[in-house]
Amino acid sequence: MIYTITLNPSLDYHVYLDELESGTLNIAKQTVLLAGGKGINVSTMLTNLKHKTVALGFLAGKIGKKVTELLDEMHVCHDFIFLKEGETRINVKVHAKQETEINGNGLAVTAADLDQLIAKISLLKKDDFVIFSGSIPGGMNSATYQDILERILDLQALVIVDARGELLLKCLPYKPFLIKPNRLELGELFHNSLQSEMDIVSCALSLQEQGARNVLVSLGADGAFLLAENKGQYWLKAPPGQRVNSIGSGDAMIAGFLSGFLETKGDYEYALKKAVYTGSASAFVRGLASKSEVEQLIRAMDR
Which of 83, 194, 195, 288 is most buried, by CB atoms within 10 Å? Predict the structure, then answer.
């Protein structure tokens, strides 16, 4: 089973218009409500790809209930903890000539709330996957993921971490199966502008030396780089296409990688291929791509 952890989920309000003009009235061409949060995006994409997954985390209030309703509509299994106080945040995503995001504040999560989540995670079995994605609510510190991993270490689950900065670095001693920084996040970790492929490889090797088994670096329109635990180094360019939306494409990459890895029982080169094409397919549509859209893109690029 594949579990995703979203400690800071949201209700995402996507607004589409030709151009955003500040200081005046803007009329949207289309608006869409989606359940948001990086782990939720991964679970949604995995569900689209026909993999069993359960989304875990914290929700609260009427907005939290709306998030679960949207997940039910998408047939995404979930088992969120509902907090007694607070309200799940709303994020606004404006799609115009440039993408603009306005994110709300997260919930106040207590140590007792976190204990409830860890109790759910403690039901994991050996070789289950658990994916930690995204930011943490205010009041939590950069050791939050580390603290959870410390308490579930004996379960021998396969851990994937998509976080930035100290939140990611503190997970490395627990030997996560996969980490997925993007180019900017990787550069921030090493105070390096990553001017060359050699820079990317060097930084990825350092993360692997610190404990990460596999390092997947998303490079936007340039595709991705994978440093695999078998010492393989794989590069793949992104397929050409018109980008409609970049929000969630990195999360789709994680789902695609895991899907490809499971389908082939460990073929890292194919896992990278499915990661890049799943992320690209999601960038070419509004929302996350369907299974057929991913497969169509793979077939088109294989010709």
Answer: 288
Which of 211, 212, 192 minimizes the C-alpha distance to 202?
Answer: 192
- Residues serving a catalytic function are 251
Select from 150, 147, 158, 133 the least CA-distant residue to 1.
158
In tens, the pLDDT along 41-69 reads: 999 999 999 999 999 999 999 999 999 99
Q: Out of 3.40.50.800, 3.40.50.720, 3.40.50.880, 3.40.1190.20, select the CATH number for domain 181-303.
A: 3.40.1190.20
Query: Going edge to edge, which strands form the sheet with 10-16?
Result: 30-36, 10-16, 89-95, 99-102
CATH of domain 1-21+29-176: 3.40.1190.20
| Cβ-contact 7, 140 below 8 angstroms | yes
Question: What are the extents of the domains in the chain?
Answer: 1-21+29-176, 181-303
The reply to whether 181-303 shares the fold of 1-21+29-176 is yes
Tens-place pLDDT, residues 245-273: 778 889 999 999 999 999 999 999 999 99
Q: What is the pTM of this model?
A: 0.94
Joined tokens for residue 192: 């390096």
Token pair recorded at residue 253: 């990459």
